[in-house]
Amino acid sequence: MIKKTSLFISLCLITLSIFNYSYGIAENYDLKKDVLVINSYNKGLKWTDDIVRGIESILQDKANIYVEYMDAKRIDNEEYHVMLRDIFSHKFKNYSFDTIITSDVNALAFMAKYGVEIFPNTPLVFCGVDAVEIPEALPPHTTGVMETIDIKENLELALSLHQKAKSILVISDSNETGKNNRAEVEALSLLYKDLSFQYVTELSMDEIIEKVSKLGQETIILALSYVKDSQDNIFSFQDVAKIISSNTKAPFYSTWDFYIGSGSIGGYVASGFYQGEKAGELTLKILEGESAEDIPIVEKSPNKYIFDYEKLREFDIREQDLPKDSIIVNKSPSFYEEYKLIVNITVSFLVFLIIVIIFLLLNISKRKAIEKDLLIKTKEIRDLNTNLENRIEERTLELSQSNDKLKETLDLLKETQSYLIEREKISALGDLVGGVAHEINTPIGIALTGATYLVENTREIVEKLSNNTLKRAELEQFLSTATDTSHIIQSHMNRASKVIRSFKQIAVDQYTGDLQTFNLKKYVEDVILSLHPELKKTKISMDIMGADDIDITTYPGDIAHILTNLIMNTLSHGYEEYEEGKIIIELDKSPKEVTIRYKDFGKGINNKNLKKIFEPFYTTARGKGGTGFGLSIVYNLVTQRLKGTIICESEEGKYTEFILTIPADLNAIQSEKTNL
């Protein structure tokens, strides 16, 4: 009884000491699922450690991983299992795991018997178990990945690399797994009648050392699972590999990866890491919501061809003779891998030098082409020097004519300004003054400055020509400047002239002319008839709607002027050239007012421009000769002369409509103001 109690306490201490993770509530506890890993063997056993690494490679950032070790290589009986059951039940009574992973057969058998009792309704994922070892009754919610070794593939591989081999020495211990593996080899030996098969199962390690020390390269050693000799001495897999490889000249192959790196050449091996990795992938599916019953057991073991580079060199085995996709470990890095940064910098520098050389060659070729072209241009310039004086005289004459035109424009400006000052009603056009000053003075000022500049330059060129000091470059510069300046002067002169004519029209006395009583519809028809020469050039139709008996007392000339401006505005801006269109003029009369609706169905006006259309000098066609006076004149005539109102409505791409409301009898309006 005391012995059992002591053993129970020891087990508790061992379990607590090797438990890798804290069960306290971490900051991200609520964000991660909990996974318990139960290993059949002990921590430090390469196979077991590799399985845990494989699991962590998939779940490290996705779950809280807790690890337990059964240490079944040292103790594995029913009494021990019962004690483990009691420990786990007590230890995890307040914990609920989302998934449990078992590695190797002992842990799976333990969970098959006690799992439902300790961890009810918890999904189970196993790994490291072959088909023979799987218990008949698995717990519900179970899936996993099987571990199988392919002894035949390893025999074929070893024989293909050592074609002079005559015998096979199989090393395996006497546990259940070892017996099953030996039975499989014995069955396969019948296929290799030219080879002799020897088995090391019931020998001590010293006897094994003595036996392998007598072997040469004509014998292939194939290590299966071996951890305990006939004297119950326990060895790690790495110790077994080191002892055998250091005491024999025979090539040593293995069916598990834990022998590689300690003396085994390698082989088509079962890998603890890839077993754990696959188990981690299955567990991740469960954590993401997939049912364990819907995940089939992975029957094909994720084995790999893995070889030790140093052992390949020792037995003169070439890498090209190995199977495709083989993994080679313990290989020194290549020159490029070791000096990758230096090689990349050197190659980049060489590429840069090549690019620079190519650039220089292209530059030299381009420079030669330019020099050749320069010689041709020099010859052309020399030919032009023969008629330089005539060209200077022509430019001087053009400049003189431009100056005369500039003086005429200035005189016209002075007359217009005097005329405007003398008018009593100049206040009606107050908003135009700033625009007129800018619109006229700016082009006149630019033209005057250009003319002055050309006069001065011409005087200098003529003087240098007379003194025979004129250089070709100076002349070419003068000719270019004179041409550009003349064009600028001419453009701004035309601009100023057009602005002045429009401004004179806008400045006409708003009270000029006599009031008349006339039939509005008949008068509108006459205005349209007068515009027939312009309208017939287009595909735009005119419709005049309204009663025939609308008589009005106002200034007929202003009505004509307004309609003419609106129609010409439509022809210029409302439609594209030769585009079909329509204009409707609708007339209506109330007892005291007359409404004229003018509507076209052309381009329309956007909201931004619609707010500014009646402002003086505002135009969207300044580059095409527009001055911005047209609708400003219309506005002033309607509001000042005719004492009415005008508004504009438009939708871009659909229509533009002007609505004019004016007194039906302007004479009566003026009489009322006089009486007041």
Features:
alpha/beta; 676 residues; elongated; 16% strand; 50% helix; disordered N terminus; 21 helices; five-stranded parallel beta sheet; five-stranded mixed beta sheet
Task: Furnish the topology, listing elements before pairings.
Blueprint: H1 2-18, E1 33-39, H2 46-59, E2 63-69, H3 78-91, E3 99-103, H4 104-118, E4 124-129, E5 142-146, H5 151-161, E6 167-171, H6 176-189, E7 196-200, H7 205-212, E8 219-223, H8 237-245, E9 252-254, E10 266-269, H9 272-287, E11 304-308, H10 309-314, E12 327-329, H11 335-338, H12 340-384, H13 388-422, H14 430-466, H15 472-506, E13 516-519, H16 520-530, H17 532-535, E14 539-545, E15 551-554, H18 556-574, E16 580-589, E17 593-600, H19 607-610, H20 630-641, E18 645-651, E19 655-663, H21 666-675
Parallel strand pairs: 1-2, 1-3, 3-4, 4-5, 6-7, 6-8, 8-9, 11-12, 14-16
Antiparallel strand pairs: 10-11, 13-15, 16-17, 17-19, 18-19
